[in-house]
Amino acid sequence: MGMTTPPRTLAEALRARDDESLAGLLRARPDLLNPVPGDITQLATRAGTRASVVRALEHLDRFALQTAEALAVAADPAPYETLLGLLTGDGRDDGEHRDDAGAAIEDALPGALATLREQALVWGEDDRLRLVRTAREILAPSPQHASPTGLGPTVAEATSGMSPGRLQEILAAAGLPATHDPVSAVASLSALFTDRARMGALLDTAPAEALSVLDRLVWGPPYGEVTPNPTPPVKWLRDHGLLLPVSTRTVVLPREAALHLRAGRAHRVPEPRPPAVEAVAERDPQAVDSAAAGQALLAVNTVEELLKGWNGGGPAILRAGGLSVRELKRTATALEVPEQVAAFWTELAYAAGLLASDGEADERYAPTPAYDDWAELPAQERWTALATAWLAATRTPGLVGGQDAKGRALSALGPELDRSAAPEVRHRVLAMLAALAPGTAPDPETVLARLRWERPLRGASVSPGDTTDLRSRVALWTLNESELLGITGRGALATHTRALLDTGPAEAAALLAPLIPEPLDHVLLQADLTAVAPGPLERPLADMLAALADIESKGGATVYRFTPGSVRRALDAGQSAADLHAFLAAHSRTPVPQPLSYLIDDVARRHGHLRIGAASSYVRCDDEAVLNEILADKRSVTLRLRRLAPTALAAQIDPASLLEGLREMGYAPAAESAEGDVLITRAGARRTPPRTAPVPVPEGPPVPDATLLGAAVRAIRAGDTAATVVRKDAPEASAAAPGALPRTTSAETLATVQAAAMTGSALWIGYVNADGAASQRVIAPVRVEGGFVTAYDHTADEVRTYPLHRITGVAELADDATA
After folding, report:
1. Burial of 500 (0-12, 13-18, 19+ CB in 10 A)
2. How far apart are CA 628 and CA 649, in angstroms?
3. Which residues pair with 645 in a beta bridge?
4. What pLDDT digit, counting tens, does each position of 163-208 carry?
């Protein structure tokens, strides 16, 4: 560490680090940067706060955490050998605790200790390792609670407040010499429990039932309840100090005795190595890529189909936000998927910025303008946009259908689905898959085990095989969603996904493009009023066909069905019968069937024969017989029609309802404008105002970049220089308390600054900015004029100008202060 004497405090240990090491600490614990500490002492203080320490402990892997837990039950400070012994044991149970496990611990311990040191959780040389006090308070046992290792308090802690007479009774029962000094009595009992030979001899005299009691307590919890008249085995243990009273009904197994029974080990099963992610299948990588590419294309088409269905305005938004259960069911039915999968697709479109609220009074979901740009991209680029949004999204669609903390149902697109841990879990799961050989599908249980090893504190209460904690559930959802999205194929990570994770969307799109079939410019018309698209269609063809026909089935080939309603939809969009005939003839590899031609001509002949306008609304037709027929039809009663003229009827409902009512009666009316022109309704015209994609909810402060880290380290170093610099003795400076700002008169300040500018020396100043914030700085004055001093500020590492009236005082630095 570059120190001639061992550090006495965490601040001294941090001060001895080089800039790269300090940057590593700030990178690992970015919460320490908000705001940037003024000096090393502030950095050390902030690093020791409970909230920051808890956050740091949560980011440790299992073995690093076990190392910290072992230090928490060791004496403070503890030498490296003691720490190693707590993890490997004293060798008395080699049959259970094999030599290879001890070798693995010896190999892994330096790395775990380096991690703890880097994050400022441990400091000191190897012969005096210290766990920061806050971490010790969190991890160490006390008379009130056991540590995560299952160990209880020490003999000294457990006997605190015990009467001297009771201590003498325990010493006598254990065969120890009597002493009237409580400290000596506690030391004597502790020495007995840590002496391997004497402790073994004492346990040899214990009843078998007493040893059974110890077996139940040794690995924790170390506390047990006793009755006023305990059984003989418990009484024997209590009399010999192996169970010490915590309260009138509670006893505890002291730490020293438990460590002897554990053969010196702090943990039952140390885990120096991460569990391996095992494979359930080895597949051909090319087959994996093909399956993933097919699913990727299906994902793109599904999102497009979803948004096309909401082109004219999607479902209404609940008052509390999100989709209603009924609307989610409708969406699932339209997409022909389960409701949970439909929730995933809607959330994916929302996370990608393709779907949003329209902001109207009657608020509804609708595609955004970004959807039109996305739809024009090649399929592979549309997929990379979806996959990138999914990787970064904190939206968690797997929660849909569950309940929040208040028992309220969680709805799709609702406001309560953000979980900040989701992106990190997704990246970790995919990193595990990327570490496997190409084509390897992992066992989900081993993925969960590895995830819990990497972040044990976030699932510490979860037993193996339990998937109730959020991180495990997100991991399982990640595996399922990866398959839906084409991230994986047949359970294995695809090649284009590896490129997406390693190099970015451009390389991923380039690898995916050859696996996606080229769009087709034709369909196969059939005599049963259907058309078969043997693959993906070019966008203009697909859009026109979607207006002219209804999708009957999807898969490798899409089947479209022509109906009177679908043909009328195309005519409403401004197409004529001649246009439709020409379109089908141009894009069909088979002759246009006669039934389809008849269907188009029949619907076109009747289309627009009736005209709907606003009266509230009206119907006009040149054929009086048709209007008579409508009035005579009992189904028209709800339309509330009356004759205005031989060729016109008026209605008391709006034009849209009248249009829909007449269509249900079997007519093919057309809407018209106030000028009498036929209104053309084009599908997909409704869009929200410009919207940005939802911003993921961050999990804690963002990781700072190299520029910010470098600037922060320079500022901390400079502030530390100002706080710890050696100053020449002066009445004003020496009177100030350590860390206080220097105080000098205005005349003294001006004279000292002018002299420093002439000699080129540095000064220590106190400064109060315009906001009233006080700080101390080291400056080298360059020029003094007009009530301002221009100087190189060592704290900010730049030249600045300071008003003299804001300088509280100055002090000269000792000759070797800046050496």
Report:
1. buried
2. 10
3. 648
4. 888 888 888 887 888 777 778 888 888 888 888 888 888 889 889 9
Measure the CA–CA gap between 492 and 281, rounded to whole angstroms: 9
Q: How far apart (Å, rounded) are the C-alpha atoms in residues 86 and 270? A: 10
Q: 791 near 780, Cβ under 8 Å? A: yes
**d(C-alpha 75, C-alpha 73), whole Å:** 7
**Nearest-angstrom CA–CA distance, 764 and 767:** 10
pLDDT digits (tens, 9 = 90+) for 55-71: 999 999 999 999 999 99
- Which residues does residue 488 pair with via DSSP β-bridges, in sequence order? 493
Neighbours of 77 (CB within 10 A): 16
| pTM for this predicted structure | 0.76
pLDDT value of residue 144:
57
Nearest-Å Rg of the Cα atoms of the chain is 39
- Which run of H or E residues covers position 157? helix 155-158
Model confidence band, residue 273 (pLDDT cutoffs 50, 70, 90): very high
In angstroms, the first-to-last Cα distance of the chain is 20
Write the Ramachandran bin of 251: left for phi over 0, alpha for psi from -120 to 50, otherwise beta. Answer: beta
Length of the chain: 819
Cβ neighbors of 815 (< 8 A, separation 6 or more) are none
| Phi, psi for 409 (deg, rounded to 5) | -70, 140
Q: Bridge-partner residues for 558, per DSSP?
A: 533
Pairing of strands 763-768, 807-812: antiparallel
Task: Write the pLDDT tens digit of every residue in 113-167.
Answer: 999 999 999 999 999 999 999 999 888 766 555 578 888 888 888 888 788 888 8
- Other beta carbons less than 10 A from residue 532's beta carbon: 16
Rounded to 10°, the helix 40-47/50-58 angle is 70
Amino acid identity at 456:
P
User: Would you place residue 458 in the very low, low, confident or very high pLDDT band (cuts 50, 70, 90)?
Assistant: low
Helices (H), 393-469: 422-435, 444-454
CA distance 412 to 400: 6
Closest CA to 270 of 83, 99, 88, 450: 88
- Segment (H or E) for 478: helix 470-485
Q: What is the DSSP string of 480-493?
A: HHHHHHTSEETTEE
E strand or H helix that includes residue 28: helix 19-28
Select from 524, 647, 542 the least CA-distant residue to 589: 524
Residue 459 has pLDDT above 80, yes or no: no
C-beta of residue 280 within 8 angstroms of C-beta of residue 479: no
Q: In angstroms, how far is CA 566 from the centroid of its own chain?
A: 45
Mean pLDDT for the stretch of residues 725-745: 57
Confidence tier at 99 by pLDDT (50, 70, 90):
low
H or E element that contains 600 = helix 594-606
Q: Positive or negative, the Cα torsion across 394, 395, 396, 399?
A: positive
User: What is the rounded distance in angstroms from the CA atom of residue 298 to the CA atom of residue 303?
Assistant: 9
Whether 418 shows a pLDDT value over 50: the answer reads: yes
Taking all residues of the chain, what is their mean pLDDT, rounded to a whole number?
85
The enclosing H or E element of 759 equals helix 746-759
C-alpha pair distances (Å), 682 with each of 40, 570, 744, 789? 66, 9, 80, 70
Amino acid letter, 1: M
Spatial neighbors of 772 by CB under 8 A, at least 6 apart, are none
For residues 218 and 211, what is the distance between their CA atoms, to the nearest angstrom? Answer: 10
